[in-house]
Structure formats: C-alpha cells, structure tokens
Amino acid sequence: MQNPFENALVQLEKAANIMSLDKNIYEILKYPDRVLTVSVPVKMDNGEIRVFVGFRSQYNNALGPYKGGIRYHENVSLDEVKALSFWMMIKCATVNIPMGGGKGGIIVDSKKLSLGELKRLSRGYIQKIWREIGSDKDVPAPDMYTTSQIMGWMRDEYEKLLGHADPGVITGKAIADGGSEGREIATAQGGVYVVRELAKRLKLQPNEVKVAIQGMGNVGGFMAKLLSDDGYKIVAISDSKGGIYNENGLDVKAVFEHKKQTGFLSDFSNAQNIYNEHLLELDTDILVPSAMENQITIQNANNIKAKMILEMANGPTTPEADEILAQRNIIVVPDVLANAGGVTVSCFEWEQNNKNERWSEEQVFIKLESIMVQAFNEVWETKEKFNITMRAAAFVKAIERVAAKIKI
Ligand code: NAD
After folding, report:
1. Mapping DSSP to helix (H, G, I), strand (E, B) and coil, where does residue 312 land?
2. pLDDT tens per residue across span 88-101
3. Which fold has domain 33-173?
4. Does 128 participate in catalysis according to the annotation?
C-alpha cells in the first residue's frame, strides 16, 4: 500500500504544473503548518494504565481555522493524518467555505474499549491538544469510529480547560448539544445536488439513468433514497455482506424494509444476489462508491463499465486506477467535491454556534445547494478550460484559492 501522504504530494505536483503555480507557494504547500504527536495515558477498567498515541495535523489555515475529523482506528498513522489534513484543505477550498485543512486520529481499536475507557481516552486526547484548538483556530469533527457522543465529551473537556463556553470548537455534535439540523443527511444531499448539475451538463433524464451504489450506511443509504426520489433507476445496492441487482431498477423503500426485517440485502424479491466486486463492474451509467477507500484499483479499473463515477466515499479510487479511468474517458466526480456537503454543513454548525443562531433544515439545504451548485460549475469550467479531469480541476481551483491568501 502506498504512503497516502506521498500520493497527496503527487496530486499537488500535478495541479501545480497545470496551473503554473508560483514555486515558493508550491514549496510551502508541500508541508503541513504544524503536526502534533501526543501520548494519552488511560486508566483501563482493570486499573492498569495503557498509553495511546494520537495525532493532529494542521495543514493550512489560509482560508480559515483548520477543519477536519478525528479518526479512531488501529491503522491510523502520522502520514495518513497528514494526507487527510491536506485533502481537507483541498475539499474546503473546492467548495469555498471559510475553513482550512486539519485532521486528527488515535491509534486504537475503539470497539475493544468500554464506554468509560472511550470517554477517558477522548477527554485525555483533548487535554493534550486543547491549547492548539478552538473555534477560531482548529475545529475537529467526527470521522471513522468517532461519534456525536465523543464530540460532546471532547467539547466539555475543552470548555473545562478553557474556562468558558466555546461551542464552535467542535462540530458533529448532537442537535441538543448545538449540532446543526440537516447534518445527518448533508453528505448525501450535497451529492444529489452534484448529480443534478451533472445531469444538466450532460442532458440526462433521471429515469433513463441507471445507478449502482456501493455501501448502504449513512452516505450510501441516503443516496439511494434521495436519487430514487429524484427518479433515478437504482439498479444495484450493496453492503459489507453482499449486494442485489435488478437491471430494471429496485424498489428502494422495499429494499430498506427487507434489510430491516432480515438484516441482509440478499434474497430480496425481484433481484439477483451479487458479490461486492461484481457491483463495481456492472453495466450502469453512474457508479456511486459510498463505502470505503481503495475500491477501484489497477485490478478492476479496466472492467468498470459505468460512464460516470460519483465518489461519495473518501479515496475510493487509487491514483493508478484514476489514470486508467481518465484514459477511458470515464467521468469521475472526485470525493473532494462529491462528498463535500458533509463538511459544508459542519461549517454551518460552526457558524451557527459562533453567531448563537439556529437555522432550520430548510435554511441549511438552501445554503448547501447554492454552495454545491457553484462549486460543481466552477470545477466543470476549470476542467474544460485546461482539458483535465474533474479531480485535477478541483485541485487547481482549490489551490488557486489557498495560494491567493498566502502572503510571501
Ligand atoms: P457507514 O459506516 O455509515 O457506512 C458504510 C457502509 O459501507 C455500510 O453499509 C457497510 O456495510 C458498507 N460496506 C463496508 N464494506 C463494504 C464493501 N466491501 N462493499 C460494500 N459495502 C461495504 O459510513 P458512511 O458515513 O456512510 O461513510 C461512507 C464513506 O463516505 C466513507 O468513505 C466516509 O469517509 C465517506 N464520507 C462520509 C461522510 C459522512 O458525512 N458520513 C462525509 C464525507 C465522506
């Protein structure tokens, strides 16, 4: 597996060449502003102390406070956190929200901790990084295996240490705790606004467009519901245990009901059971990876039959596969644009907290739509201008914005 930070630097170099980026700015953007490595001692339930290693990478704050989630996973590494903080910088700048790029993580298998241990770990991590975060400095959020409950503990610990309230220090909080309306569905809703713009550009009629969705969690599940409400034909859906396929379209509501009753997607009436790998290679119009990273690789990129790929997951396409897809003229709407609805509504949460306001779900979605539509069209126009992929275009657009704010 390649070093993710090296991959990020290759993407930076590519964009820098396309846009003839000033070489001094390029040099600055090759490094995160600040990286913290902390050790967090936690008293386990059996009375022993275990020390967990955590990180926070603050990549760049030219556009606003560093922003990015905190991941709890055994495979977290400094290079992964640095790469993710770089991609957060690109994502926030692609949709032009006033936030920079940051990311954090702790090396831990959180499923093996009791609730009490998890709470002590989360509070302990904040005790180590609290001087470097704040609503005007660095605003963490949930990521893999971190939840709104964990964000609530972290905010509480931060405010205790700070000595006063600062609800905007962290986003992804429960609504009762200052979270935003619409956050749960925001990533998928943002993806749907992007699909609508893509359909306009390519003159597609929803009822003629076949969609396959990998993953049925927060993102994939809502994508299936929302796209089917828009009239798209959802022909395949999968989860970690396998998938189902009907070339004429699935009844999405009935699929959810079936999964609720049986716990599985398989054996749904009127559909064929398929393997996860098969879903990626189906003859569809839009493939929507919404599960995990590294799903489209050098092994299967030549077998992809979809005409478009909407990357709702983070990093579902490896850099080698990306090149193959580009050569095959498959349109890839990159993750930094397609799934940016999530961080955009996190930014709205921060804004509401800072102004002591509460926006309705309707207000949230009106603002989200305007941001996603504008970002899509700017990326599309940049792609046309330089004759490059949408991913390269998003990077160029984002780096242009960040570079304009860096004073040297
Ligand atoms: P989730 O945990 O709610 O759902 C993940 C889904 O993927 C589950 O249905 C699981 O069964 C399925 N899955 C796992 N392995 C699979 C496989 N091999 N094949 C098919 N399905 C598989 O996670 P989520 O919040 O929906 O996030 C999904 C992706 O979207 C991640 O890459 C995440 O980083 C990205 N993302 C999420 C958000 C958000 O707001 N939740 C925002 C931006 C990006």
Report:
1. coil
2. 999 999 999 999 99
3. Rossmann fold (3.40.50)
4. no
